[in-house]
Amino acid sequence: MSFVVKMNGALNDGIHSKGMNGNGVHHLSVRTHVSVNPAKLKSNRPRWTVRPSEMSKKTLNPIRAIVDGMKLTPNPEKPMIALSIGDPTVFGNLPTDDTVLQAMKEAIDSHKFNGYAPSVGYQKSRDAVANFYSCPEAPLEGKDVILASGCSQAIELAISVLCNPGDNILIPRPGFSLYKTLAVSMGIQVKHYNLLPEKSWKIDLKHLESLIDDKTACMIINNPSNPCGSVFSKDHLHKILSVASRNCIPILADEIYGDMVFSGCDFQSLAPLSSDVPILSCGGLAKRWLVPGWRMGWILIHDRNNIFGTGIREGLVKLSQRILGPCTVVQGALESILNDTPPEFYQRTISFLKSNSEICFSELSTVPGLNPVMPSGAMYIMVGIEIEHFPEFQNDVEFTERLVTEQSVFCLPATAFEYPNFFRIVVTVPEDMMIEACIRIREFCSRHYLPRSLDSHELDQ
User: Fold this and answer.
1) Superfamily of domain 61-92+344-460
2) Assigned fold of 98-340
């Protein structure tokens, strides 16, 4: 059998040259005692077997899974009012403060923040966060701060450093769906503890404690709450900490809505209330400063008894090195954003959110078949559906789907938060839009509400 092979160097051992022309082409003679079938050679070649990872297959966003399956065809005669997205920037009525924008402009113009930063963030930026949140009861230094790409990544880092596959974590129901999405993708079991709507969404503490076993790696406490808009009292937080302390369970505190509470209510961070429970507190710029797209979050490490030791801190550093930290320009502006934003900006935002919440609660409280729960903070209000009064709909998903079809109002079904027969309303929309949405919801319920006294037999007559 004879081949022509173009070579750039010496011939391999075992191949005999029969001559070479000036183009570097060798005429080779290869002795073989086996008859080669080209088709057989081709069939033995490896085949493409590119498969998705197990993590990707386990990753599911409940909100997307539910919303993508809904038939959302708005009424063409009514403009759409989306009360479903927890993004305060959507309608343009809640801009961030000019001092925040100016800080970003100065960071850009300085040309100092165009390169890589340490994966955990610039030391100066970490110091600024530590100084902003430090208090005598829970002192912080820059070394206690890990900067992250938004609060969502901060939560991911915290879960990743505390949990192994096969462990379990305790999360609220109803609760932010990302906790489950992240945990399940990592092979971590999720256990839901109940919040009580009749008690302004306080935690069912007995239920919480009953879920703890030797595989429980941490509990997640979300305060103020998404989706409930609730704010826990100091007394209730002490009781939560007692459960954690008795069972030696660390806490991941999701406090992204910290201080975003209505007048007459106080926000109390968990860490200053405990001297023994180690806490990873997650927050960021997204909601209080109304810039979710800037992706700046952080973890505050509270560990006054050195229970975490060096291992958890070193683990967070290593995990943060996977993406080399958050946006450096925002880091460059961070100190000014934290220290120079005027208090009036926060007060205006909170006043607006409270006013819209009161409008929504007042309007929907008088709608037969609905039971709104007045929030105390954040940007949401949860509304219960007396589903037995709406026999056309099997559940909250069908209810909210038809609300879009008939009234072009989109509320998020609370099945997305593991809490059927409620829906969540985002209260960041302009006031006139909030009022119009409530009018349409009332009209929708009036059309479909069936009093208990009227059964199907009576209707047929």
Assistant:
1) Aspartate Aminotransferase, domain 1 (3.90.1150.10)
2) Aspartate Aminotransferase; domain 2 (3.40.640)
> In Å, how far are 25, 195, 369 from 415, measured between CA atoms?
71, 14, 18
- This prediction has a pTM of 0.87
CA dihedral sign of residues 246, 247, 249, 252: negative
- Express each pLDDT in 122-175 by its tens digit: 999 999 999 999 999 999 999 999 999 999 999 999 999 999 999 999 999 999
Q: Among the residues of 54-149, which ranges form H helices?
A: 54-58, 62-69, 98-109, 123-133
CA dihedral angle for residue 219, residue 310, residue 286, residue 382, rounded to 10 degrees: 0
Please report the DSSP string for 349-403 in residue order. Answer: HHHHHHHHHHHHHHHHHTSTTEEEE--SBTTEEEEEE-GGG-TT-SSHHHHHHHH
Can you give the residue ranges of every domain in the chain?
A: 2-41, 61-92+344-460, 98-340
Cβ–Cβ < 8 Å for 348, 93: no
Compute how many other C-beta atoms are within 10 angstroms of the C-beta atom of residue 117: 18
User: What is the spatial distance between Cα 23 and Cα 16, in angstroms, rounded to a whole number?
Assistant: 18
